Structures are given as structure tokens and as C-alpha cells.
Amino acid sequence: MSEGPCLVIAIDYGTTFTGFSFITPKTANGDLDEIRVVTNFGDGFRMGNTDKVPSVISYSPKTGGEQQFGFSLSEEAVRMQHSKLELDVQETKLDELELILQVMDGMKDLAFEHVKSAAATPGYSWKVPEEIVKDYLERCFPYVEKSIAEDLGEQNMGRLPVDIVMTVPVSWSYRAKDATLRAIQKAGFNKTRFPLLRDVMMVTEPEAAAVYTARFLKKEMGANFLKIGECFVLCDAGGGTVDVVSYKVVQLEPTIALEEVGCPTGAKCGSSYIDGYFKVWLRKLLGERNYRKLDPTAVGGKSNNNSSEGPYMRAIMDSFDGHKKEFKSGGRDIKLDLTEPSLANITIDGKVDEGQITIKSSDMKSFFDPCIDRILELVQGQVDQIGGTGYRVKNIFLVGGFGESEFLQDELIESLGMNDLNLRRPSTSWTAVVRGAAILGVEKAAHENITFLKTCPRSYGIKLDSAYTKTKHDAKDHYTDALTNDVMAKGQMHWLIRRGDLILSDEQKVTEKELAFNFKETGKKMFKIPIYMYEDDNIPERYQNARTELLEVGVLDCDLSHFALRDFHRFENPETGFPYYSAHCTVKTTLSEGYLTVQIMWNNAQNDEVELCKLELDHE
User: CB burial class (10 A; 0-12, 13-18, 19+) of residue 192?
Assistant: First the structure.
């Protein structure tokens, strides 16, 4: 638990909405009433519930006093949305290709007239998701800082030690965690702005929600609610992801303590996917040509759910969102007006009446069904997991923005009623995650599931010759390998670990880089690879023009002389016909707290993996 007075800041960056909270605890555990949720984000944010701010940003020119993020967008703005989901999709080349297609399509394939009309401020961003998230959080930061200063007093801002807690979904990849942390720190949540920053921590969204919800409901419902040994299931239904985790109560005093039961599960089936199903339906209803007028950034045959929306589609989706939140079984048909001028009076027999479309209740239900079915499956899976351990579930806790949907609640109640389970939803369910994260930050020493985050202070790389391409390499490095006849680029830097890479207290980062060591039949079967360290951010790509900036910190010394030629792959030079042999190796890098381990692994001709050498470096 935190020692002495401190400030804990919690950040819940969400797919559709983002929440910030802070606490300066007076006790070791912190009190729920001490949590402050940031609600003031300046002019233009006086609409609806301000406990969270929409996770949207626009790079379109301002037409008035708009801030171009959150609720405060100009009428003609193109809004970038759902960027959180894109932090976790770039694990394959297909995902990256889809993002490139979206950008190219949004910028009209770089057509000259479009570029000219956009001038210096195009509406569609060419930035990668991490940069978009950073820009968004950077616009939020001054209001978070201002709220803390107003609560603590300007004079106390720099006097308290600071801990920062960020929340992530259960199934968040290392790459997504790394990108999230980088964006948060670059946005201002760093040691420069908070000189007394101690720890940066990461907790899963359901873990934070469970801690807060259990304590909130216990306080609200009295001493008989929840007992030691009792289990419950927490469903955190957000805009992008839905996480479902089971917990057992292991302590009630001085405060409730929980233990995770079974295996957490989650899926991308949040409320934003309902928007996607609606867009698919709308596209089919209107036809490709008319739909494109509403959504020029739609890619190919797929509706653009996770990237951007222009003013016409934005207006329709804002209207749709209000109906979505109010939808329940057996509701009335919904009327929506097409906002694009050329569609305002269009009539399509049986589909559109003078620019107005009708969404039948059955259609609306069909948009919900895939998400609802997946959530019910996740919840039932957790109930079954607990049952398999000999315990019984009595309560399901429902939190998150999607958790406020009456339709979702009704479907869960109907499904759970057969199992004699109670659905509980705190009145503060929308901010349960960011409130719980603040509590976990206060009690950081008492919770095993908190991950402490650090970043690697330096970059580490190796020098290799690479296959030459004109677009990537300097012509000065061009040469033809006499042994293989391959056209190569000499002395290219390959960075195994980059400065700022995330170091997790409970997980190692492992990367692999392939290389080939080629030699003649009578040649030496030995090679050395120096490891270089670089201190700054702008890492060099060529060794030749950066020799004086690089510091050699170790050498990977590999000796293959005791292996027979049959253990290597044999090739022939296509120009001379002379044979040569190759050792296909992998540079395996493991980044953990305090140490960086680099290994050279060799897969011989028999496909056996052999460790050739290993080097351990202290990166602190």
C-alpha cells in the first residue's frame, strides 16, 4: 500500500469514451468517496454525461471555437474514432494492408485535386493509430492537470509523489500495451510533467471494475451482501471489447479482497460493432453509389467502422447512437433522415421515403444479436468454469458503457434467470473501471495482478548486410556478394530493442531476427556479430554514417567449425555454379526487468535447433 501522502492518477482509454480519475488517499486503502472523476473538458463539452469524454479527434480545420476532440467538433469535421481497436490489430500484414487502404482511400489515392483542396490541413489523418491516440490524450491532458490542480491547490501539485495507472483489456497484446503506454507518456503523463513520478502501472479493465464494484455494492447493500468464499462474475461491456472474469471473495475487512477464479475471457464484441452491422445494412439498403455519398472513406466492400467518419455519416451515427442506447425488445420502428444534400429527397421503393429510412425493430435486434450472443456465451462460460471448481455463482456484476443498454440487461436477465443468478449493476457502472484503477494504485503492494511498467532507456542493435532495394537503401552501400551473387546493402543497422520499448514486471518481450551465415566448402565456419547501443531516439539505419555515435557493448561469437558440412544447407551460385553452404540462424532477443538476453539459434539441415552463443546485458 502507498506510503505517506501521494497522488494516484488513473487513465481508462476506451474505444468510444475515455475516463480519468485521481485520488489523494487519507488512509492506506483509500475510500471510494475520495476518488475524483475528471468531468470538465472545457467549452463544448456541456452535453449529456461528462464523466467520460468521447474518444474521438479531428484533424479538420476549425470553423469556430471547437477543440476538435471529444464532443467539441466542427460541423464539417472528419472524426477519427475507435483508434484503440487499431492498436491491437497490426499483428499481421493483412491488418497493416487494410490500414494502408483506409488511409489511401480517405486521401482519395493522393489525387492531385484532393491534395490541393485539402491544403495543409487534410481532414483524414495519415498518422498511425499510436500517434492518433497520443494526439487525443494530449488534448485531454491539460484538463486532467487543471482538475487535479483545482482539487489539490497549485502549490501542492509538485509536492506529492505520483503514481499512474493505465487500464487495458484482458486479451491486449504486448504490441498494444506498448503502443498505449507510449501514447500516454508522450501525451504528458510522464516524469517531465510530474517530476515526483514513482510508478507507472497497468491493470486489466475487469480487475479494476471488480474491485470497485464489489466494494461499492457491499457499501450500498449492507453487511450481508457478499461473504468470504462467495464467487461472482464481472462482465465489463465496453464500446470495443467485452471482458468477463470470475472472482472469489477472500477477505471482507478492513476492505474487500478478491481472488481470480478460472481463466479470464474476452472478445471484441462491444457496442461499436453494432454500429458496424448497421452500416453494412445501410450500405445494402442504399446501394454502393448512394452509400459512398454518406461515407466517402468506406473501403472497398467493407464499411469503415474503426477509422473515420465524415460529417454526413457522423450525423446519422450520432442519431443512431441515441436510438441504440434506448433500444429494447418490442420497441417501435426507428426513422432516420439521410443528411447528405443529394440524398435528402431520394426515394427508393420499399427502402427510402423522401430521404428517410426506417429501421424496423427486428432489424435493430439483428444489429445487436451477434454481440449479445457472444457476451452470453462468455458469461455462461465463466459460470461453468466456477461450477467446475465446486463453487456456485450467485451474482453477475455488469459494468461499462454497453452495460447500460436495457436490451443487453434484459437478455442477460432472461438467460441467467434459468440458473437462479442475480444481475447487479452499480449506479456508477460507466466509471467503475477508472475508479477501480485509482483504488488499485493506492493499494499497489497488496494486489498480485498489478503489472509495473518501465521503458527500455536505450536502443540495442546489430550490423548486418541486407538484400538491397533502391527505395530503402543508400546506393553507396550497394554491392554484389561474390559468394552468392545476391545484390546486397552493406552495413545496415537492425534494431533488436528500441529505446522506449515496454518492460513488463510479469512478462518478457521476445523478438526474433533471421540471418544467414554463408561460407565456402573450405572456408572458416566462424562469425562474430557486435551488439551496439544507442542513447537517443532518432536511431540510425546505416552503420557507415553513425560509427561514432554507436557504442559496442558486446559481441556474439559463433563457432560452427565442429559441425560437418552435411549439417548445413547447400546452394550454388547461379552465375558461377560454385557451391556454398549456409547456416540459417535466428537472433533471439529477450527483454526483461534489468536484463537483455541475446542468443544466436541455428536450425541445421535436420531442422534441429542449436544455441550457438548467448550474451546477457544489463540495460538499467
Answer: exposed
